[in-house]
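note to self — DONT lose this again. spent like an hour looking for the file last time. sequence + predicted structure for the chain T wanted, 328 res
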Amino acid sequence: MRDYYIKKENGYTSSIQKGLSAVRSFRSGLSYGTGTREENTERLKRELDSAEAVVIGAGAGLSTAAGLTYSGERFERYFFDFIDGFHIPDMYSGGFWPFPDEETRWAWWARHIYFNRYIDPPKPVYKDLLAMVQDKNYFVITTNVDHQFQRAGFDKKRLFYTQGDYGLFQSASGRIKKTWDNEAWVMLAMEAQGFVRDDNGIFHVPQDRKISMRVPHDLLPEIPEGGKAAMNLRSDDTFVEDAGWQESSARYASFLKSVESRHVLYLEIGVGANTPVIIKYPFWAMTAENPKAVYACLNYDEAICPKQIESQSICIDGDSGEVIKKFR
């Protein structure tokens, strides 16, 4: 098994290395692009029509545009008791909160997983995006862990989730290089907290708002081999890159190589400044290396490109969901 993986190229590592090497050469500063929003939207439409391949790089901003917000009304609706009891400001912070015991921590995670992984988003942004590219030769790399690409119908073999999946458990130590589906456990944990299903099988807070912030001790998740389970999310060196992750990484590397000298549209959506080395910098580098390539950035207040590739770039500031909706 080990020899098998050695022979597979790691698209995650190789693209990061490419981006880090290239970003040092972008010494002329950054640009917000050229042209008006309307002109750039029309140009993006033309590029989608003519491109031989589309590489989508998606960050948290895409899920936010789809309504999977981590603060505000949605957070308050499902986590009101955690807000009152622990003064947690948003869902992201809750993932790192020092809860008093494992029963409380896993009650939090059951909700966090369910409302971001096992239900459809409020807005059809992912399905609209699929409609844009489903007839194209495309591949998706994403730092999102909410599985919404697959829920929308994207081909699993054209997806690379680099940072993990809310729907998977791994061993807490990371020594066992496997992951396990957690859907059955999540459903039990939601019921145990007092959430109720509607006629469509979707969990909601009951009318009396009486829900528990703990799961029973015997419901604490363990892996089949025995031992504590953990979320399969990249946060430290215990993150498990299992066989599925390895295959996706290799497919990404293979796809990039197959289109590297062709008319490629590198379509970056909602990628922020937290992890630019995974998507943003490699996209800049690959665009700079290929005069036929075009880099498009859809982002709210962060639609930028290096000045060196300004003429090859399309920067559209604003709600990416509203832009994508225009392509339906």
